[in-house]
Design a protein that fits this description.
Blueprint: E1 2-5, H1 16-25, E2 35-38, H2 46-59, E3 66-70, H3 72-75, E4 88-91, E5 115-119, E6 132-136, H4 143-156
Helix pairs in contact: 1-2
Length: 157
């Protein structure tokens, strides 16, 4: 799965069509069978993001799943992602601040119920039962980072 991270750092958002074309092209890289967009869209960015996701989905081959990362709030009480044309929305269970995930919580939005995202630089909490766990790492992945992440997950699963 190719993951495309969008960061604006206060800059103006690009044109959705231009960004969508660049993102969709990553699905043509060797070995890529799925695509994920990682963008912490502010409320004011949502119209842009909704349009971008629709454009990317239309440019991808039908058999290539499109996934997005999601703030936990989008999966619970702020369900603006309900009708996006994506296969899944992955709630990020790290760097959450006041929206901290608590063991036993379930996500209300159906798109958020099959996967979760965790990070190697935060302790693992009791994980909900999901089909897929995405492990994010704040730096470049080294073999020892991968091995440590696998061992840590084995302790919790």
């Amino acid at each position: 799965m190719a993951v495309v991270r969008l960061e604006t750092r206060g800059a103006e958002l690009p044109l959705p069509a231009d960004a969508a074309t660049a993102i969709a092209q990553t699905a043509q890289l060797a070995g890529v069978r799925a695509l994920q967009i990682d963008f912490d869209a502010k409320a004011s960015d949502r119209p842009f993001y909704r349009e971008l996701i629709g454009l990317v989905r239309r440019q991808l081959p039908a058999g290539v799943p499109l996934s997005i990362t999601a703030l936990a709030s989008w999966c619970n009480y702020d369900a603006w992602i309900n009708d996006l044309p994506v296969a899944e929305a992955v709630p990020m269970l790290f760097r959450m601040g006041p929206d901290r995930y608590h063991p036993g919580d379930s996500f209300r939005v159906n798109l958020c119920q099959s996967s979760i995202g965790i990070s190697t630089d935060e302790p693992i909490i009791r994980l909900p039962r999901v089909r897929r766990i995405y492990v994010f790492h704040p730096g470049p992945w080294l073999k020892r980072d991968y091995d440590n992440a696998v061992q840590e997950l084995k302790r919790w699963l």
